[in-house]
Amino acid sequence: MIKPFRGAAAALLLALLPGLAAAADFEPDRYLGTRWYGVYFFGDKVGYGTFSLKTAVHRERPAYRTEFLVNYRLNLGGSRQEMSFREEKIYLPGEGLDAFTTHQDSLLGRVSFAGERQGGEFRVETPTGQRTAVAAGETLADALAHLELVRKEPAPGESVTACQFETTLLVPVTVTHTVESVEERFPGGVPLKFYRIRSDFPGLGVTTSSLIDGELRTREGSLGIITIREEEEATARDLDHPGDLILAAAVRPDRKLANPRKIRSLRLRLEGIGDPNLILSSRRQEYRPAGEDSYYLRISSPPDGDDPPPPIPILDPARAAEVAATAYIQSDHPAIRNLAREIVGEEKDSRRAAELLTGWVFENLGKSFLAAVPNAVDVLERGTGDCKAHSVLLVALARSVGLPARTVSGLVAMEDGTFYYHQWAELFTGEWTPADPVFGQIPIDAAHIAFSRSGPAKQLRLLNLIGKIRIEVVGGEWGIGNRE
Questions:
Q1: For the chain, what are the domain ranges?
Q2: 36 CB-near residues (< 8 Å, 6+ apart)
Q3: CA–CA distances in Å: residue 399 to residues 243, 348, 416, 423
């Protein structure tokens, strides 16, 4: 139920592989072939991947096809699970990205997206119907941008900006590749230049680092605590000893918190927060600086406001995004709509509806570790899942009855005193009310630290935090008369 990584991060590994502004002398045939990579979290081997570029025929025209594949074998709290992700993109010379497909295989089954360009947009077939997305002008040269940059033997500080279409989020993103350093190494006793390339994705709030040699091979790349290394096929496929990802990503404070589900307020000192976008101040969370990349944080569980909650459906245009259906939160699906109406019944009070929906997910959805990017329909059909599955289903049910809702990601303290990466929800009942369907809480206790809200694109910023944050417990207040 508590899992530190989303599958969208798997797709972002594409940024670490051959991944430009088009140049007159761009010759894609020099990149034809397949490369194998090992995938590591916290130094433990958890998967392998390949990147290939091949010629193709598409719409009876010559084309190029890229394929990215990653297979995971994950240890989640002692549960071994396998998950795979494959993305294929087809480019027409002179026109750019024309079609794509993605497949994710996990315990939830196969989830596939297939997009084809029609004019200025992609028509995307999803498991629950057709959607559209802006067809930004990604070309094959964009997809190979930092390799082309290295081909020109750049000096430190030189950069190039490119466009890429992120097929798991269905949005175009901008990336800037910058040469951080150039050095000469002697692999096998032969001198060879190596280029350290930093790739910034400002729209996603993440940065990757790649080591590319003068032969235009990506030898290594990193995205937060994720590392890939070029390996021979047999070595890449060796997945015999995966580490436990949940334990590896956990944050152990300087002292244990007893009875975390009963904490009404908590005072912490956090270190290692280099991304200011992870500082989410609210009525519940109050921050003040404590030094470089350090903050004092006070979390409280404030009482409900004095104003009566608005009735559902809430039709405020300012909340339109939080009642909309998405590819993963299918609030417009008949199974979701029918169940939500059954749970809520004739209730119009938004606060009471939020309580009913949270209680239903808590009582009826089984709790299990899940190596997958969950969507609400698959979660409902399977009947079990982790914290992501619980929150996605709750948000979909709420939106289907006109109750604005969004997912929240961060850390939660458990009974062993350790903070684990976790996901819950916020429901709008006149104000944003946090709800945790894993624990059946609405509102939640103060042992939840929120760092990200609303969807996988923003949740990727957690990669800027994992493995870096440290927590000092300053004090807290428990249920009745128990203070520090």
A1: 8-236, 260-477
A2: 48, 49, 50, 230, 231, 232, 233, 236
A3: 37, 14, 34, 18
102 CB neighbour count, 10 Å cutoff: 20
Residue 123 burial by Cβ neighbours in a 10 Å radius (0-12, 13-18, 19+): middle
Query: Cα dist. 59→140, 314, 338 in Å?
Result: 17, 46, 41
Task: Find out whether 340 and 397 touch, Cβ atoms under 8 Å.
Answer: yes
N-term to C-term CA, the chain? 30
What does the block give as tokens for 121?
């947009």
**What pTM does this model have?**
0.79
Reported as a single tens digit per residue, the pLDDT across 258-313 is 899 999 999 999 999 999 999 999 989 999 999 999 999 999 987 766 789 999 99
pLDDT in tens, 42-75: 888 889 999 999 999 999 999 999 999 999 988 7
Which of 447, 135, 96 is closest to 261 using CA atoms?
447
Q: What is the DSSP letter of 216?
A: S
Tokens at 468, concatenated: 């870096």
Q: What is the pLDDT of residue 73?
A: 87
> Alpha carbon of 254 to those of 222, 273, 473: distances in Å?
29, 17, 7
Contact by Cβ (8 Å): 420, 4: yes
Distance CA 448, CA 436 (A): 10
CATH code of 260-477, in short, is 3.10.620.30
Q: Between the CA of residue 131 and those of 115, 325, 326, what are the distances in Å?
A: 9, 11, 9
| Both tokens assigned to 479 | 């249920």
Alpha helices in 233-299 (DSSP H): 233-236, 245-249
Buried b (16+ CB within 10 A) or exposed e, 365-387: bebbbbbbbbbbbbbbebebbbb
pLDDT higher than threshold 50 for residue 415: yes
What the block records as the tokens of 389 is 């599955």
Phi-psi group of 455: left, alpha or beta (phi > 0 → left; psi -120 to 50 → alpha; rest → beta): left
